[in-house]
């Protein structure tokens, strides 16, 4: 049984009032996806919006040559599938479980009915989609304007969490991705990522510490 407290752990939903959350609980269902499984496939019918409650997943495309391109990673509290639900078109990308996942599913018809009758979810989605558009615009700018060295640095920064020691503030990537995963995210090759990481470390921008990376500064 889905609970209101679980829905409040989802950033998109945590500002909705109890009455609206209870209406969502009535129409949502739970789904589980084992590690390595496809949660959705590109070009499938967009019949639902999904909320990732437990686990991690990645959003990918596969080129004609069979190369996987990672668009971004999903963590607990993230949602996906909203574009297909809003547009009525097929899924635009794959979503693959990178760990065992637990999800809440909101069907397309239930979603449309809910936002017609309640404005909380609709307003929250408008804000979140605006933020995503801004992030996508910045990434497009990166690909056009920055070389691989800077793209890798900015990709690391997007994955990092704030780390404070006294008054000092830095950023750390924990459970750092493999070179191939970084290459997929930065739109380059594994070999170029290896060179970029070496260069960033030599320039004092990062320190690689076992399975984490400390970001000391961003390159100019």
N→C terminal distance: 51 Å
- Mass-distribution shape: globular
Order of helices and strands: HHEEEEEEHEEHHHEEHHEE
Beta strand %:
25-35%
**Widest sheet: strand order?**
1-8-3-6
Describe the biggest sheet? 4 strands, antiparallel
How many beta-strand segments? 12
**In DSSP terms, counting alpha (H) and pi (I) runs of 4 or more, how many helices?**
8
Radius of gyration: 19 Å
Write a short abstract of this structure.
The chain has 220 residues and is α+β, with helices and mostly antiparallel strands.
Question: What would your notes on this structure say?
Answer:
The protein is α+β, with helices and mostly antiparallel strands and 220 residues long. The chain has helices at residues 4-7, 18-27, 82-87, 108-117, 120-145, 148-159, 179-186, 190-202, and strands at residues 28-33, 38-40, 48-54, 57-62, 68-74, 79-80, 94-97, 101-107, 161-165, 168-173, 206-209, 212-215. The strands form three sheets. The chain has a four-stranded antiparallel sheet with strand order 1-8-3-6. A four-stranded antiparallel sheet has the order 2-7-4-5. Strands 9-10-12-11 form a four-stranded antiparallel sheet. Helix 6 crosses helix 8 (190-202) and helix 7 crosses helix 8. The model has no long low-confidence stretch (mean pLDDT 91).
């Amino acid at each position: 049984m889905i609970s209101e407290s679980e829905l409040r752990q989802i950033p998109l939903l945590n500002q909705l009032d109890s009455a609206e959350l209870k209406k969502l609980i009535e129409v949502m269902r739970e789904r589980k996806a084992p590690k390595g499984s496809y949660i959705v496939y590109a070009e499938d019918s967009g019949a639902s919006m999904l909320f990732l409650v437990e686990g991690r997943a990645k959003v990918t495309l596969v080129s004609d040559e069979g190369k996987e391109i990672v668009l971004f990673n999903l963590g607990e509290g993230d949602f996906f599938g909203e574009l297909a639900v809003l547009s009525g078109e097929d899924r635009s990308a794959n979503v693959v479980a990178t760990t065992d996942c637990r999800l809440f599913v909101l069907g397309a018809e239930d979603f449309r009915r809910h936002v017609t009758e309640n404005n909380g979810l609709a307003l929250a989605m408008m804000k979140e989609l605006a933020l995503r558009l801004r992030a996508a615009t910045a990434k497009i700018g990166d690909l056009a304007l920055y070389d691989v060295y800077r793209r890798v640095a900015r990709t690391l920064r997007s994955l990092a969490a704030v780390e404070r020691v006294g008054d000092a503030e830095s950023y750390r990537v924990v459970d750092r991705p493999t070179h191939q995963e970084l290459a997929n995210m930065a739109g380059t090759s594994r070999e170029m990522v290896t060179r970029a990481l070496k260069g960033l470390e030599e320039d004092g921008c990062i320190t690689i510490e076992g399975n984490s990376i400390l970001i000391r500064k961003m390159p100019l």
